[in-house]
C-alpha cells in the first residue's frame, strides 16, 4: 500500500522570488519617478528663468543716468514677456546704486548680498503668502556725477512652473510604468522557466518504480546542479542500503532455515522416541543446533549493524587499549574452556584512533573469537598492538596456532559464510566473522591475513590514527 504523505509547504519559491522582484521594481519606480520629478522641476525652472532673464534684461537696457539722475523708461515688452505665464503674477523693482527704489515694489525680498555683475542670479523667496522665483542682475552706471551698480529685480509666482514640471513628470511616468509592467511579466515568465528543471525532477521521481534508484540525468542549470548531485548521492546510498537489506534478509532466511528445520525434526523425533539413550542423543544435537542458530543470528545482526553504522554514525576519538581490554575480558571464559591464554605485546605508544567504537569492538571481538575457535587447546593467542608511522595507523595483530588459511583462499576468506581452509575446524563457525572485520576495515583502515612462522594465522587490522586537528 502506498502512503500519501501530506507536506505543508512553508513558502512558495516562485512567490518569494516574485515578491523580491516586485519590491525591487517598486523601489526602482519610485526612484525613477523622483528623478523624473526633479528633472521636470529643473527643466521648468530653466524654461521660465529665461523668461525672467529676458524681462530683466529688457528693463536693464532702459536704465540710464541724465544730469546725475538715474532714470528708467519701463518698456512694455518686458511685461509682455512675463505675460506668457498667464496664471502667474509678476513683480519688478529697480534700485539705484545707493539702494533707492526707482520704480516697482519696494518690499521685494533681496538675497545674496551686493550685486556687482551683469550675470543673472536666481533665488526663491516667500512673498505675499506664496513662493516666488526671482532674478537679479546689475547695470553699471558710469556717469561723471553717478557711478555704481543699479539693480534690476524681476519676480514671478511658480504656478506655471509647477504645471510644467507635473506634465514632464507624468509624461515620464507613463513609459516607466509600461516598462515596469512588461518587466514584471517577463520576470514571471523567466522565473517559471528557471524553475522548470525542478518540475522535471519532481516528475522523474514521481513516475519511478519503488525499486528504481538510478541517478537523475536531466539537464539542469548550474545553480541546481549541487541539488541534483546531492540527490543522486542520496539515491546511490539508498540503493546500497536497500541492496544490503535485501541481501541480509535473503542470507538470514537461507542460513537460519536449515538449522531451524533440523531442530524441528530432531524435536519431533525426540517427542516420539522411547529409548532414553537415543532421546538424549537427539537432545544434545538439538542443543547444538540451537547454539549454532543463536550464534548465526547474532553474527547476522552484528554484520547488519556494522554495515548500517558505517554509513550513518560519525567517527569519534577511540582509545584502542580500552576497547581491546573489554573484548579480552569478554573472551576470557571461552579461552579458559580450551585452556588457552592471551599474550599481549603493547608498544606503549599512542593508540588513539578516529572511528566508530561499536564497530571497532565488533571487529576485534571476531578476530579474538576466531583465534580461540581455530587455535588448538592449550595454545596461546598472541596479540600485538603498535603504531606504524609509514601508514599512520595503529596495527593490531591477532595470531593463533590454528590450521591457517592457504594463500589461494585468503582473498575469499572475507566473503560471507566462507570458512576458507577451516571447514573441518570449529563446528560452530558461521563464516561471518571475517566479513564483519572487512566491513569495519573498509571505513577505518585495512585488514589482511598473513601466515605465521611455525604454523598458524596472523589477522592484521590497521586503523587510521586520530588526525592532529582532532586530538
Explain this structure to me?
With 471 residues, the chain is of the alpha+beta class. The chain has three domains: 12-207, no CATH class; 212-312; 314-471, Histidine kinase-like ATPase, C-terminal domain (Heat Shock Protein 90, 2-Layer Sandwich). It is 51% helix and 21% strand. Helix 4 packs antiparallel against helix 5 (276-312). The longest helix has 48 residues, at 13-60.
Keywords for this entry:
471 residues, alpha+beta, 3 domains, five-stranded antiparallel sheet, five-stranded mixed sheet, 14 strands, 51% helix
| Computed Rg | 50 Å
Count every beta strand, where a strand is a DSSP E run of 2 or more residues. Answer: 14
How much beta, percentage-wise? 15-25%
| Helix content, binned percent | 40-55%
What's the tally of helices?
Answer: 9
- Secondary-structure element sequence? HEEHEEEEEHHHEHEEHEEHHEE
Q: Sheet bearing the most strands, described?
A: 5 strands, antiparallel
Number of domains: 3
**Distance between the first and last residues' Cα:** 50 Å
Query: What's the shape?
Result: rod-shaped
Name the strands of the widest sheet in spatial order: 4-3-7-6-5
What is the mean predicted local confidence, pLDDT? Answer: 82
Uncertain spans: none
Output the structural class.
alpha+beta
Task: Provide the fold topology.
Layout: H1 13-60, E1 63-66, E2 69-72, H2 76-82, E3 90-95, E4 101-104, E5 121-127, E6 130-143, E7 146-157, H3 159-206, H4 225-272, H5 276-312, E8 316-319, H6 320-337, E9 341-346, E10 352-355, H7 357-374, E11 380-388, E12 393-400, H8 407-410, H9 433-444, E13 445-451, E14 457-464
Parallel strand pairs: 9-11
Antiparallel strand pairs: 1-2, 3-4, 3-7, 5-6, 6-7, 8-10, 11-12, 12-14, 13-14
Amino acid at each position: 500500500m502506498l502512503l500519501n504523505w501530506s507536506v505543508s509547504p512553508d513558502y512558495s519559491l516562485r512567490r518569494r522570488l516574485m515578491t523580491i522582484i516586485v519590491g525591487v521594481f517598486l523601489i526602482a519606480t519610485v526612484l525613477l519617478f523622483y528623478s523624473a520629478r526633479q528633472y521636470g522641476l529643473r527643466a521648468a525652472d530653466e524654461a521660465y528663468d529665461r523668461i525672467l532673464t529676458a524681462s530683466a534684461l529688457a528693463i536693464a537696457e532702459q536704465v540710464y543716468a541724465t544730469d546725475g539722475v538715474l532714470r528708467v523708461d519701463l518698456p512694455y515688452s518686458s511685461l509682455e514677456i512675463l505675460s506668457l505665464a498667464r496664471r502667474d503674477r509678476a513683480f519688478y523693482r529697480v534700485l539705484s546704486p545707493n539702494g533707492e527704489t526707482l520704480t516697482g515694489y519696494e518690499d521685494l525680498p533681496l538675497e545674496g548680498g551686493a550685486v556687482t555683475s551683469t550675470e543673472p542670479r536666481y533665488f526663491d523667496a516667500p512673498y505675499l503668502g506664496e513662493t516666488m522665483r526671482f532674478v537679479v542682475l546689475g547695470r553699471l552706471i558710469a556717469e561723471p556725477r553717478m557711478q555704481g551698480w543699479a539693480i534690476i529685480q524681476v519676480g514671478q509666482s511658480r504656478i506655471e512652473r509647477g504645471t510644467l514640471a507635473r506634465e514632464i513628470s507624468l509624461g515620464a511616468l507613463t513609459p516607466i510604468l509600461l516598462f515596469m509592467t512588461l518587466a514584471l511579466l517577463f520576470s514571471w515568465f523567466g522565473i517559471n522557466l528557471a524553475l522548470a528543471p525542478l518540475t522535471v525532477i519532481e516528475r522523474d521521481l514521481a513516475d519511478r518504480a519503488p525499486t528504481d534508484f538510478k541517478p537523475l540525468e536531466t539537464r539542469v542549470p548550474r545553480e541546481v546542479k549541487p541539488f541534483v548531485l546531492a540527490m543522486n548521492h542520496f539515491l546511490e546510498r539508498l540503493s546500497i542500503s536497500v541492496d544490503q537489506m535485501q541481501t541480509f534478509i535473503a542470507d538470514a532466511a537461507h542460513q537460519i532455515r536449515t538449522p531451524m528445520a533440523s531442530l524441528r525434526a530432531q524435536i519431533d523425533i525426540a517427542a516420539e522416541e522411547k529409548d532414553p539413550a537415543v532421546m538424549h542423543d537427539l537432545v544434545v544435537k538439538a542443543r547444538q543446533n540451537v547454539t549454532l542458530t543463536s550464534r548465526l543470528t547474532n553474527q547476522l545482526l552484528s554484520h547488519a549493524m556494522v554495515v548500517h553504522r558505517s554509513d550513518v554514525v560519525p567517527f569519534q576519538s577511540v582509545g584502542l587499549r580500552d576497547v581491546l581490554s573489554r573484548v579480552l575480558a569478554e573472551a576470557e571464559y571461552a579461552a579458559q574452556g580450551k585452556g588457552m591464554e592471551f599474550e599481549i605485546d603493547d608498544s606503549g605508544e599512542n593508540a588513539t584512533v578516529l572511528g566508530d567504537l561499536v564497530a571497532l569492538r565488533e571487529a576485534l571481538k571476531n578476530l579474538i573469537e576466531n583465534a580461540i575457535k581455530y587455535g588448538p587447546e592449550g595454545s596461546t593467542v598472541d596479540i600485538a598492538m603498535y603504531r606504524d608511522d609509514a601508514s599512520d595507523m595503529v596495527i593490531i595483530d591477532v595470531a593463533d596456532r590454528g590450521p591457517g588459511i592457504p594463500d589461494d583462499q585468503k582473498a575469499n576468506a572475507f566473503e560471507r559464510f566462507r570458512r576458507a581452509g577451516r571447514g573441518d575446524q570449529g563446528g560452530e563457525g558461521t563464516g561471518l566473522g571475517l566479513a564483519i572485520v572487512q566491513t569495519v576495515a573498509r571505513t577505518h583502515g585495512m585488514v589482511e591475513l598473513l601466515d605465521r612462522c611455525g604454523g598458524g594465522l596472523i589477522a592484521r587490522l590497521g586503523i587510521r590514527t586520530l588526525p592532529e586537528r582532532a586530538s
